[in-house]
Amino acid sequence: MQTIRVALAQMAPALGQLEANLSRHHELLEQARGEGADLVVFPELGLTGYLLQDLAGEVAMRLDDPRLAGLTAATEGLSAVVSFVEESADHRLFIAAALLEDGRLAHVHRKLFLPTYGLFDERRFFAAGDVLRAVPSRLGVGVGLAICEDFWHLSVPQILALDGAQILINVSSSPGRDLAATNEVGLGT
């Protein structure tokens, strides 16, 4: 397997501020491109912020949203995994992660396992995905996407590997103590 340079876009998205977060994604894509990255991975709900609750419908995007198309176009010569609230054709909301490559949307994974414990109440606001697939990528390997809680279930990485994934990418956002902001600890998955 060839060497793949991965950039982790460790950012603290502004809650509900889609335009500001989109702008930051564009900046980080250009920075990663300039530093020779092949793949840029953004956090779970990096385009919207995580604890959205009732804001979810306001920041949801369909896959044909021009803002997502603009971000997709910015991946020419690059692969990126971005995460957002996806609104389906039947108006259900999903926590989604998309593989964007060479200016095209290559794959979308909808979070399968929605936590409902502690401060997590995702099932109240989101629908669960029902498809798990690996996809070929411009990186020359199969890629499997998962989102946070999905990886707590052993079947997910096993199924992705059996489906051809050679790289497993799990995007996650969890409440923390703002350690990343102090530059003492880099947090990434």
Structural features, described:
The protein is α/β, with parallel strands linked by helices. The chain is built from 5 helices and 8 strands; from the N terminus they run E-H-E-H-H-E-E-E-H-E-E-H-E. It has one domain (6-181): Carbon-nitrogen hydrolase (Nitrilase/N-carbamoyl-D-aminoacid amidohydrolase, 4-Layer Sandwich), CATH 3.60.110.10. Helices cover 22% and strands 24% of the residues. The strands form 2 sheets. A 5-stranded mixed β-sheet has the order 1-2-3-4-5. A 3-stranded mixed β-sheet has the order 6-7-8, covered by helices on one side. Strand 4 (93-101) and strand 5 (104-110) form a beta hairpin.
Reconstruct the topology from this structure.
Elements: E1 6-8, H1 18-34, E2 39-41, H2 56-59, H3 66-73, E3 79-87, E4 93-101, E5 104-110, H4 122-125, E6 134-136, E7 142-147, H5 155-162, E8 167-171
Parallel strand pairs: 1-2, 2-3, 7-8
Antiparallel strand pairs: 3-4, 4-5, 6-7
Helix content: 10-25%
The general outline is globular
**Structurally, how many domains make up the residues?**
1
Tell me the span between the first and last alpha carbons.
21 Å
Q: How many alpha or pi helices?
A: 5
The first-level CATH class is given as: Alpha Beta
CATH topology: Nitrilase/N-carbamoyl-D-aminoacid amidohydrolase
Radius of gyration, CA atoms, in whole angstroms = 15 Å
Beta-strand content? 15-25%
- How would a textbook summarize the main sheet? 5 strands, mixed
Give keywords.
24% strand, three-stranded mixed sheet, alpha/beta, Nitrilase/N-carbamoyl-D-aminoacid amidohydrolase, five-stranded mixed sheet
